[in-house]
Input
Amino acid sequence: MSSDLKRTLDLKDSISVTAGSMIGCGIFIVSADIARQVESAFFLIIVWIIAGLFSLSGAIAYAEPVLNIKEDGGQYIFLKKMFNDLTAFLYGWSLLLVIQTATIGAVCIAVGKFLGILFPWISSTKYLIQTPFFSISTQQICALIVCIILTYINSRGIKYGVLTQNIFTATKILSIAGIIVFGIFFGCSLETITANFPYLMKFSDISISELEIISTATVGAIFAMVTWNNITFISAEVKDPDKNIPKALFWGVLLVFSLYLLINLLYVCSIPTEQIKTAPEDVVAVVLMQNIAGELGKIIIAIIILISACGSANGLIMTGARVYYQMAKDNLLFKSLAALNTKTNVPVNSLLLQCIWACMFILFCGNYSELLDYVIYAALIFYVLTAIGIFVYRFKNKETIKNKVPSLYGIFFIVTGSYIIYALTLNKFSSSMKTLLIIATGIPIYLAWKKFKNLYKIK
Output
């Protein structure tokens, strides 16, 4: 086993990882649920604007720790330097236990779900094993296969993982752009626009209760773009990271935000709000393309979503394993997770652990929407904590810190994120408390691990 990761990713690769990890199947699915919550085409667009500005301001704010904290490991290392080992461990623990692995599981389940459009025998209701206590559907089998294949590709070396990522990212960006152009010319309707926007609201007309509904509904939109921070996880493999990672964060998030906003504008200009809310399987893009191209449009969308989901899963698998690798190097997890294969120079044990846990979600949860609230609540807590940590780190290093990002971006990110966490806690109390419990389990694990490694002199 070798000891160091190699810097092989350029700016193009870094943007591909950022954008490719973000663009999954969420953009095609979550708009229906958002529309049902906000009951308005106008509010649907507002939700996507808030989510986009939130993500973009966060990406810009995160450039500051990238420029000032030179150690590899991304957000995990940021939290360690801003606060302490426990905070960093809780983030890595939550990433392994739910944030990264549950997202990988959810995206792989979506692959199986949309393969079912092309091959009807792949379904959540068609079982290979069915007992009163345990069952496995053909959809779950497909999800498992996708997770294992993508993990294997990434275990062969970073060049294979990035090549796969670049192919998927380029294909889905061009595909989404094609849908937007095609939809503008053949889908938009003045009658639909007039029906969906009978009058223009002012922000001053939005009540407090409506603001809370919008904040809760924003969860779906944020879920569709939440993984922009993943590029920081592989900072050790990015050439000239001080320049390329901040650029990748900004341009990757801006690209995805623009595509997401445009496709949602296309939805509300082409499809009545009631049809958006009641889209079959919540896939609004299928309604759009079926209205334009019939059954052929449905097949085209299924293929595009498959490509998008596979690309997102690949990016998540590639980047997540690097955090567990870094934690093991810091002696916060078993040293075997820090082992790099001598031929491929990737943390194969961390990849394997991540794959096994993601497969557990696929086997024992098997539902895309069930995983959403857990992932977002945990991710938002650490996003906001990291943004607060930017100001903590400034205070602790005020004599030596050189590179500062305007505070407005971090403040907006903190205030918006905190309000969404508050709204989620009120409106989805049960899942929020379960997520907090998952995070909290890391505290006794951390204390027990410290005692264990001191007792047995583990170094």
